[in-house]
Specification:
The structure holds 3 protein chains of 3 kinds. Chain B is of the alpha/beta class. Helices cover about 40% and strands about 15% of the residues of chain B. Chain B has helices at about 55-75, 80-95, 95-110, 110-130, 160-175, 190-200, 215-220, 235-245, 270-285, 305-315, 335-350, 380-385, 400-410, 425-435, 465-470; strands spanning about 20, 25, 30, 35-40, 45-55, 145-150, 150-155, 180, 210, 230-235, 250-255, 260-265, 295-300, 355, 370-375, 390-400, 415-420, 440, 460, 475. In chain C, about 50% of the residues lie in helices and about 10% in strands. Classes of the chains: A alpha/beta, B alpha/beta, C alpha/beta.
């Protein structure tokens, strides 16, 4: 063992997370991320529209399996994310302290809340249908019921800060509803998202269910908004001017677009779910 | 001699059609500011029925102000009392049901059998159903204190004029909103009769305002800053336009748009009932149905047998005078719609599909199209992809359940679908995999106030009816 | 592309089951809805007049009571020949339907009263339950034919049908048919009220047709529900499809519960819009009824005179 003083750190290459793999941007672009004091931290990928396209393809191909997995299974996988994050708490805390410039206590609280939020949404997976589905008393010999159903591929522009908690607030309900996600990480504070991708990569989340891009929300938002194979957008991290733009472009395929300003709620799950009503005859 | 049904026309005497209709604003009938009018015609005879007030920006503005005034009364009222007004409306609609039915048939062209047995009773039922919600909103799963939007602008289509009014107005009022409603240009009469019902029910002034007009009138409603939420039923193209107009304004928006519903018939289907379901799926209301089963997906090993039965059954269809109680298929609602149907059906011919039309004699006057299906249709045909909104069915075969699902879902729409099989597990498997908001098993085109209705994908935003439909008119769910 | 009736099944259980499995199922909710929709047809003026006369000519005027007497049977025979004594333009009914021991009385009285062209139908095979040995059923049928019945209304063994002994049901029909031969038409009563499901009605209809029935009949009139509109609809679909299959037209006879002109006209609408105009005659459609006739006559008088009639202006029997 060499003396730690003389050892050179092995620094991480921060990459994208697409289809369960960690590629660099196809564009070869990176951008510089600095800590709260202005020191260089990393050169994460500056994702391009083609990376976005690839991420949507991965998310779409993962959608069938994820949405038809049993709710219990999805709940266990969301809980597993919490377990894996717990083990990486220190790394999340260090990165949040470094980038957001908050105290270690505040960073710790943010990480704990984020982990607990996964646990909370994990429990919703197999309850959302019971609470928000219905059987409907129609006039006629039919058993009529309505169930919430997964929407599809959701693009997430999470709030910049708190970088981890804000992201989990957006991502967890999307996954709880059986959707797959393309996350555009906080541009200024991307390390939480990147570390989360590494946690996801080692949890039981199937490849493609979550895809995380680092880069410029302003650059990628119009491409996401006009992408005909994205079904919904969480625009919580976009400015109101950006949100208006994506609402206009998103009308091309009538994307479901939401922004959330409040805390955790089953309504955030439902915002990216459809309601399916089935009429089944009752007869002999 | 054979058994030919003599004509059995429903009497027109029950309705009085005024020569000129005004707008309904603030509880009164008022002339449009410009004094302009347009006409509405009976599509079965092309006769002009009445002149209708043409509402413009100034009139919409007046209606919004009236609705804002109405809101002061309506939102302060005890919810149980609001509910009682809706019950009153439901009862008056039931009392005047035949009058509504005849008027709807004259203005729209749909058969009296449908207005009498479906449109009007369902409209009244919608008010009755939502009346009961008015004082139970805290139990609707939308938080302990859900709030109405305020003034709601509502734009409805011509295919089910009164029923679409009921789908819009009843939940909006039950949840404490007031409304500015624009009926379709070609079918304003039952909405104006509904205005009289509001007067008879002594509904407070301004709670319901009806501004007749065309697309420009609708745009004035959509863009009015005093309106807090828009609810629209109509074409997907217009729905997208509205979505773009509303973007960034903070207005709420729900949309009920087009469809290209798949009606999937498996080899073990109850064939006779399936044939009825296919007929009802595509020829009900002349096919002017957003959730029509316009794509028949039939398992290849029963296709010949099914189509033989379908042809035989189609030869029994009675097309003609919509006021005749024995008429199954009435008139196409307008010359424009007839032209659209004709053009799209012709694309089926030119793209090589094979046409079968029921052997009906079309009346000389009015707008008519015979019940028609095309075989030899593939996913690539225009008639397999575009909404025809007329009595034209595209028949597509499949070999396995998986293939049926793939074909059914291969559309930007996602409003409705049907599944025909004797096997309960297959019904639920198919329903699970279909990307559509309403799935009918061994039936089609069934509607109920308690049953949420609305689409996936480009078929719309939100639901109408049932508990889920209330969310369209309430804010603050947590 | 039709096949012969005799080739549909060889009469063995597996063969019968195999044949019946080729039939599509019936969705109860959909069949009910279709029948209800056809019930809304509005029949007016000239078509109503035509329908009333057609319905009268389709009636199997029936008396099937323990209290039946010679007098009662003679009375209905008179009624059958001249339903409205004040109006000779009223057609005679389709047939007289009585128990076995009344056949000769009915035949004789009809022949003596100008009704020789009206057939006598006898209910047979231990009507209404059918719970008797084949020997008894054979004797029942032979007697009736010997006494002048040219139509035999037999009941199927519902117990056998419900327990799955389709071979027994089939072979009994085949045997009774052989007794009828060219002397009598065979109507097979399914007693749909005991079969309960429309799937059973369809299967029993095809089973009876494959076994040689000339008519399939809903009910004995002793079990409710009897000739409901959806049951008749399913049976009309069966004869229509059987014709497509074999080229042979089988008749349908609803019986029980059809009491008013409105009921009867609804039946004719079902026939027209299901099996088609070819079935709209007494050779292929009969209505088993008694009280119905007077209501048809009352309605007919109303159409002719323009004013409403009263019970005392039609004859009691």
């Amino acid at each position: 063992m060499s003396n730690s003083k003389s050892r050179i750190d092995v620094k991480k290459t921060y990459k994208l997370f697409i289809g369960g793999a960690f590629p660099r941007s196809e564009s070869g672009r990176t951008y510089e991320v600095k800590d709260s004091k202005g020191n260089f931290v990393a050169n994460p990928s500056l994702a391009s529209r083609k990376d976005l396209r690839d991420a949507v393809v991965a998310a779409r191909s993962a959608f069938g399996g994820w949405s038809s997995a049993t709710a219990f299974n999805r709940g266990q996988i969301l809980y597993r994310i919490a377990e894996i994050m717990e083990g990486r708490s220190a790394q999340f805390i260090d990165e949040i302290v470094a980038l957001e410039g908050v105290t270690p206590t505040a960073a710790k609280k943010q990480v704990e809340e984020a982990i607990d939020l996964w646990v909370w949404y994990s429990g919703w997976c197999d309850k959302i249908g019971s609470i928000y589905g219905s059987t409907n008393a129609v006039s006629g010999s039919f058993y009529n019921f309505t169930i919430p159903d997964s929407l599809g591929v959701v693009a997430i522009f999470a709030p910049a800060k708190p970088s981890l908690l804000g992201l989990v607030h957006s991502l967890a309900p999307v996954l709880a509803g059986g959707n797959t996600a393309v996350v555009i990480a906080s541009e200024k504070y991307p390390l939480s998202a990147i570390t989360l991708s590494e946690a996801l990569g080692t949890s039981d989340v199937p490849a493609g269910v979550v895809n995380i891009l680092t880069g410029s929300a302003a650059e990628l938002a119009p491409w996401a908004a006009s992408h005909m194979d994205i079904d919904g957008i969480d625009a919580s991290g976009l400015s109101s001017a950006q949100e208006k733009e994506i609402r206009i472009a998103g009308a091309d395929n009538l994307k479901r677009i939401s922004t959330f300003k409040d805390g955790a709620s089953p309504q955030h799950v439902l915002a990216f779910m459809e309601n399916k009503t089935v009429w089944h005859p009752i007869g002999v | 001699m054979t058994f030919e049904y003599s004509s059995a026309p429903e009497s027109k005497a029950i309705v009085t059609i005024d020569p000129v209709y005004k707008l309904f604003i603030g509880g009164k009938f008022v002339a449009p500011k410009s004094g302009k009018t347009f006409t509405t015609v009976n599509p079965a005879t092309e006769e002009v029925l009445a002149k209708i007030g043409y509402g413009e920006k100034a009139d919409v503005d007046k209606a919004v102000k009236a609705a804002q005034e109405g809101l002061k009364v309506w939102s302060k009222m005890a919810p149980s009392e609001r509910g009682k007004y809706l019950y009153r409306i439901a009862r008056i609609m039931q009392e005047r049901a035949r009058e509504f039915a005849v008027l709807e048939t004259i203005d729209n062209g749909k058969p009296i059998r449908e207005t009498r047995d479906i449109d009007i009773p369902l409209s009244a039922a919608h008010f009755f159903y939502h009346a009961g919600w008015a004082d139970k909103l805290e139990h609707a799963g939308l938080g302990s204190n859900p709030k109405p939007y305020g003034v709601v602008g509502q734009i409805i289509p011509w295919n089910f004029p009164l029923l679409m009014l009921a789908w819009k107005v009843a939940p909006a009022l039950a949840t404490g909103n007031t409304v500015v409603l624009k009926p379709a240009e070609t079918t304003p009469l039952t909405a104006l009769l509904f205005a009289q019902v509001c007067q008879q029910a002594e509904l407070p002034a301004g709670v319901v305002n009806i501004v007749t007009g065309d697309g420009a009138t609708g745009a004035a409603i959509v863009n009015h800053p005093g309106i807090n939420k828009i609810a629209f039923t109509g074409s997907t193209d217009v729905g997208k336009l509205i979505a773009r107009s509303v973007a960034g304004t903070g207005k709420g928006l729900t949309l009920e748009l087009g469809g290209k519903g798949a009606n999937i018939v498996f080899e073990d289907a109850p064939l006779d009932e399936t044939v009825e379901g296919i007929i009802n799926g595509i020829f009900f209301n002349q096919g002017h149905v957003c959730c029509a089963g316009s794509r028949l997906l039939v398992q290849e090993n029963i296709q010949d047998e099914l189509l033989e039965k379908l042809k035989r059954r189609m030869s029994q269809i009675r097309l003609g005078d919509p006021l005749d109680k024995n008429t199954d298929i009435g008139a196409i609602n307008s010359r424009e719609q007839l032209a659209k149907i004709t053009e799209l059906a012709m694309s089926g011919d030119t793209e090589g599909a094979e046409r079968f039309s029921a052997p009906c004699t079309l009346p000389a006057k009015g707008f008519w199209y015979p019940p028609t299906f095309f075989t030899g249709v593939t996913q690539a045909h225009r008639i397999a992809r575009e909404e025809i909104f007329g009595p034209v069915l595209s028949v597509i075969s499949f070999r396995t359940p998986q293939e049926a699902i793939e074909k059914a879902n291969n559309t930007p729409y996602g409003l409705s679908a049907g599944v025909w099989t004797d096997k309960g597990s297959r019904i639920l498997w198919t329903a699970k995999h279909l990307r559509a908001g309403v799935i009918w098993a061994n039936t089609f085109n069934k509607f109920d106030p308690a049953s949420p209705f609305g689409g996936y994908k480009e078929s719309g935003w939100g639901r109408e009816g049932g508990r889920h439909g209330l969310a369209a008119y309430l804010k603050g769910a947590k | 592309m039709s096949v012969s009736v005799s080739s549909l099944t060889d009469g063995s259980l597996s063969s019968i089951k195999g044949f019946l499995r080729t039939l599509p199922p019936v969705d109860q909710v959909g069949a009910d809805a279709r029948a209800a929709m056809l019930g809304t047809r509005s029949i007016k003026t000239a078509s109503k007049k035509w329908a009333i006369d057609m319905a009268i000519s389709m009636i199997d005027l029936t008396t099937l009571e323990g209290a039946d007497t010679d007098g009662k049977v003679k009375a209905i025979c008179n009624k059958a020949i001249r339903p409205d004594p004040t109006d000779p333009s009223v057609p005679h009914v389709g047939a007289i339907c009585v128990y076995n021991d009344m056949v000769s009385i009915a035949r004789k009285h009809l022949d003596e009263s100008g009704g020789s062209d009206i057939p006598v139908a006898a209910v047979s095979t231990a009507f209404p339950s059918g719970r008797a040995s084949l020997e008894v059923k054979e004797r029942d049928t032979k007697d009736a034919i010997a006494n002048g019945a040219t139509e035999i209304d037999m009941v199927i063994d519902r117990g056998a049908f419900l327990s799955g002994d389709l071979e027994k049901v089939y072979s009994e029909i085949v045997y009774i048919k052989s007794l009828c031969a060219d002397k009598a038409h065979l109507k097979v009563i399914l007693e749909t009220g005991e079969l309960v499901t429309y799937d059973n009605v369809r299967k029993a209809s095809f089973l009876a047709m494959a076994a040689g029935a000339d008519f399939i009949k809903t009910s004995t009139g002793k079990v409710a529900p009897a000739a409901t509109a959806p049951v008749v609809l399913v049976m009309l679909e069966a004869v229509r499809d059987f014709y497509q299959m074999t080229g042979v037209r089988i008749g349908v006879k609803p019986a029980g519960g059809i009491r008013t002109t409105k009921d009867a006209i609804k039946q004719l609408v079902l026939v027209k819009e299901t099996a088609g105009d070819d079935w709209l005659n007494p050779e292929l459609f009969r209505i088993g009824a008694s009280a119905l006739l007077n209501d048809l006559l009352l309605q007919r008088q109303k159409l002719t005179s323009g004013h409403y009639g009263g019970a005392n202006y039609v004859t009691l029997d």
